């Protein structure tokens, strides 16, 4: 659908990338990766037509619709949430107006037997059919489903967008882009403003409903669940891997090892050549050979190795005094703003050494709870901070507390103690501060850079109770790995607010969910919590069915009978789920077989004999149709599975 041919992008004297060529095909789900500054966002802008390359061409198939979500965008505040989302269906409104115009014209005419009137009827009928095909009768339901999937309540639909934070308004823009149903979706960090439930919904949408997707994200679990192809920008070039992100990591490691061997061999050969030139430069008898070696050096295509440091960078929190057995206890903790209750009667006891996650939809009170614990806002009930608790607190506003007069290096140098002072440059590099950034003044740093610097300061302070509110925002994958390893090795207690499943996986041993004004405890890691949430959904489904039966007088007598009915319902439901899953696997095997046949035919067509064989073209066309049909059935089965798993 989109062909990129030998593009180059220059910023002044700096070449961001060059000789970049690749093709985006139907149903490609591509992770676009590379270190910060490699050019990922720039490439997305070029693909979206918002920017032009210095050289090369971008060819887009006719009528290809592209949806583009940048990290930052101007947002209109003149309409309600629903009205803003409805803009995605402006073409539907135009169709409706055309139908209304034709209907009025028919009502005014009386020449019922004329050819012109019959032609008018045909045009009206055709317009209504096109209107229906384009979802004219159902698009309101699509808007509701998408907005709710992205975390909005129905009560939000009629609220002005100006009442929402920037993060929520970005969700509205994302909803509009998804509702447009583009042929190619370009998404630059779409999960930055989403909670876990909304991220899971977006994952399902992109897997089951989206066509081609190119995705930039630092959420490893998100891109690994969605993508089937990985394009890396490195050293101004691209490397195209037709595998998921996790497989790409392994293949990249192998490629880098091969590059290193080739680089070392080349450097050895260059050194030997230079040594020969220096030794015999002034000997007349060797003049021809020296000139030959000089020309050889000039012709060498030097191998470049990405300067990203893939070695393990470890940071350990400095030793702190031991805290009491229970660093944080809340008793009847309640927070209200006027008539609105954020949460009430929260009773939590956090033991020394526990690492817990606070999760839930945005606006449910996670950050408010943290502020109550820190004593930043008034509340009802008790918050008891344990004996000897020394708190290390990270929130988004921590970045504003940095000293603007210091450089990046001095900010860390002033607090680093002991052996760690010898690793300051390595630590800064691990958090995306290269050599060109460490001498910058804090006052000129971007919001993301200030946040990362504040995180490093926290890592180097002796604390025994960590309270982290969205610590992974503005961190790339390597930085998150460094932070995660530091927290895993941390001997104290950690309370973490985050929506990043990969970051929380293997890090926390207890999850507290904030929802509907209450806080619920789940023992286990983040994926245990997500699995239990699905079980809870089934339980709620059964409870709903049981309640409906009672309302209509059909509930069986006694709890024992109800329990048996519930068991049978669960049994039938699980049986249905297993059947759909088996059908999906069978369909995937069938699609793989068809795609292998198609690849074989395409290989034959690439030969002179095959190119003249008309039967191969017919076979190619038939296979494409079979694949499209099988994919449609696969998508339908996946949607059925999602609906079967979802509570009523």
TrEMBL record:
Domain ABC transporter: 2-260, 328-541
Pfam families xref list: ABC_tran (PF00005), ABC_tran_Xtn (PF12848)
Segments forming a coiled coil: 85-112, 570-640
Renumbered residue ranges of the record's region Disordered: 545-570
GO MF: ATP binding; ATP hydrolysis activity
Record InterPro entries: AAA+_ATPase (IPR003593), ABC_tran_Xtn (IPR032781), ABC_transporter-like_ATP-bd (IPR003439), ABC_transporter-like_CS (IPR017871), ABCF_ATPase (IPR051309), P-loop_NTPase (IPR027417)
Domain of life: Bacteria
Keywords associated with the record: ATP-binding, Coiled coil, Nucleotide-binding, Repeat
Basic and acidic residues biased stretches: 557-570
Family: Belongs to the ABC transporter superfamily. ABCF family. YbiT subfamily.
Protein name: Probable ATP-binding protein YbiT
């Amino acid at each position: 659908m989109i062909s990129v041919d030998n593009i180059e992008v220059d910023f002044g004297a700096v070449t961001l990338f060059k000789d970049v060529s690749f093709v985006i095909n139907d149903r490609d789900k591509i992770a676009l990766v590379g270190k910060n500054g490699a050019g990922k966002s720039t490439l997305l802008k070029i693909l979206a037509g918002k920017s032009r390359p210095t050289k090369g061409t971008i060819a887009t198939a006719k009528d290809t619709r592209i949806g583009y979500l940048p990290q930052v965008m101007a947002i209109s505040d003149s309409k309600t949430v629903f009205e803003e989302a409805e803009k995605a269906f402006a073409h539907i409104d135009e169709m409706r107006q055309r139908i209304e115009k034709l209907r009025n014209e028919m009502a005014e005419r009386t020449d019922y037997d004329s050819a012109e009137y019959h032609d008018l009827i045909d045009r009206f009928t055709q317009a209504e059919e096109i209107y229906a095909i384009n979802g004219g009768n159902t698009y309101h339901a699509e808007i509701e489903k998408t907005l709710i999937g992205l975390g909005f309540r129905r009560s939000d639909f009629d609220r002005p967008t100006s009442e929402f934070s920037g993060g929520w308004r970005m969700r509205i823009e994302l909803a509009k882009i998804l509702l447009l149903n583009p042929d190619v979706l370009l998404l630059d960090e779409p999960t930055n403003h989403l909670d876990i439930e909304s991220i899971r919904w977006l994952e399902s949408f992109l897997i089951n409903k989206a066509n081609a997707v190119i995705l930039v994200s630092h959420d490893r679990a998100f891109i690994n669940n969605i993508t089937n192809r990985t394009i890396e920008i490195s050293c101004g070039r691209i490397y195209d891997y037709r595998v998921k992100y996790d497989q790409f990591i392994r293949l990249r490691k192998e490629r880098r090892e091969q590059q290193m061997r080739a680089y070392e061999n080349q450097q050895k050969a260059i050194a030997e050549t230079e040594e020969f030139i220096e030794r015999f430069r002034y000997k007349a008898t060797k003049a021809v050979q020296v000139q030959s070696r000089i020309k050889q050096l000039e012709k060498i295509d030097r191998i470049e190795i990405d300067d990203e440091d893939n070695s393990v960078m470890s940071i350990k929190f400095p030793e702190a005094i031991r805290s009491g057995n229970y660093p944080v206890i809340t008793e009847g903790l309640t927070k209200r703003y006027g008539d609105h209750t954020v949460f009430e009667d929260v009773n939590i006891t956090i033991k020394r050494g526990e690492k817990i996650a606070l999760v839930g939809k945005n606006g449910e009170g996670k950050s408010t709870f943290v502020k109550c614990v820190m004593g930043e806002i008034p509340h009802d009930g008790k918050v008891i901070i344990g004996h000897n608790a020394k708190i290390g607190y990270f929130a988004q506003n921590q970045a504003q507390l940095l000293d603007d007069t210091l450089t990046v290096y001095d900010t860390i140098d002033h607090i680093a103690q002991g052996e760690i002072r010898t690793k300051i440059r390595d630590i800064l590099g691990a958090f995306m501060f290269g050599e060109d950034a460490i001498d910058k003044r804090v006052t000129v740093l971007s919001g993301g850079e200030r946040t990362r610097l504040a995180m490093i300061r926290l890592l180097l302070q002796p604390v025994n109770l960590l309270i982290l509110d969205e610590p992974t925002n503005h961190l790339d994958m390597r930085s998150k790995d460094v932070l995660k390893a530091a927290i895993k090795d941390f001997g104290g207690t950690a309370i973490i607010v985050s929506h990043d499943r990969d970051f929380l996986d293997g890090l926390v041993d207890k999850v507290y969910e904030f929802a509907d004004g209450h806080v619920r405890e789940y023992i286990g890691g983040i994926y245990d919590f997500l699995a239990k949430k699905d079980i809870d959904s089934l339980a709620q489904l059964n409870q709903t069915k049981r309640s409906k039966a009672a309302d209509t007088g059909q509930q069986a007598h006694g709890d024992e009978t109800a329990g048996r009915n519930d068991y049978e319902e669960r049994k039938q439901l699980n049986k249905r789920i297993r059947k759909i899953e088996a059908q999906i696997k069978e369909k995937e095997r069938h699609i793989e077989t068809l795609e292998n046949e198609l690849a074989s035919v395409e290989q034959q067509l690439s030969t002179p004999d095959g190119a003249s064989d008309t039967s191969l073209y017919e076979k190619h066309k038939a296979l494409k149709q079979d694949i499209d049909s099988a994919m449609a059935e696969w998508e339908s089965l996946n949607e059925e599975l999602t609906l079967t798993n979802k509570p009523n």
